[in-house]
Amino acid sequence: METVAALPGSPFVLENLAKPLVATGVFEPWASDLARLAALPNVDYKLSGLVTEADWALWTVDDLRPYADHALEVFGPDRVLFGSDWPVCTLAADYGQVVRAAEELMAGLSMTERDAVFGGNAGRLYRLNL
């Protein structure tokens, strides 16, 4: 966190939602640490890797929801990037299942916010012409 704070002009992307312990349902200290990172404006997060942090055989979207909701709350949808975590995700789900889970987790967002999460934010951050 000190490095990120010391480099305010450099963007950072937090991969795999900082690896929460979804399978065990542990929320802290992950949630507090994520909120501290979200307070730094040069940090974005990638909504990826949740299915492989859950029970590989028995996960449901409801298992993932508290973690995705908290990340959306502290970062806001303008700093969220969807990532499939393919091919690693295939340990717990196929690509289509991962996409459908992410779509369900983002269903409460406006169309503009969903477009940002599923492409626009990555385009901005990585300077892609999408």
Strand order of the largest sheet: 1-2-3
On the 0-100 scale, what is the average pLDDT? 95
Largest sheet: 3 strands, parallel
End-to-end Cα distance, whole Å, is: 31 Å
What CATH calls the topology is TIM Barrel
Q: What's the total helix number?
A: 6
Number of domains: 1
Question: Which overall shape is indicated by the principal axes computed on the Cα atoms?
Answer: globular
Strand content: 5-15%
CATH superfamily: Metal-dependent hydrolases
Structural class: mainly alpha
User: What's the total number of strands?
Assistant: 3
Task: Specify the oligomeric state.
Answer: single chain
Account of the protein in words:
- Pfam families: Amidohydro_2.
- This is Amidohydrolase-related domain-containing protein.
- Residues 4-128 form the Amidohydrolase-related domain.
- InterPro entries: Amidohydro-rel (IPR006680), Metal_Hydrolase (IPR032466), Metallo-dep_Lactonases (IPR052350).
- It comes from Amycolatopsis taiwanensis.
- The protein is mainly alpha-helical and 130 residues long.
- It has a single domain (8-125), classed as TIM Barrel (Alpha-Beta Barrel), CATH 3.20.20.140.
- It has 6 helices and 3 strands.
- It has helices spanning 2-6, 30-38, 50-53, 61-75, 95-105, 111-125; strands at 12-14, 43-47, 80-82.
- The protein has a 3-stranded parallel sheet.
- Helix 2 packs parallel to helix 4 and helix 4 (61-75) crosses helix 5 (95-105).
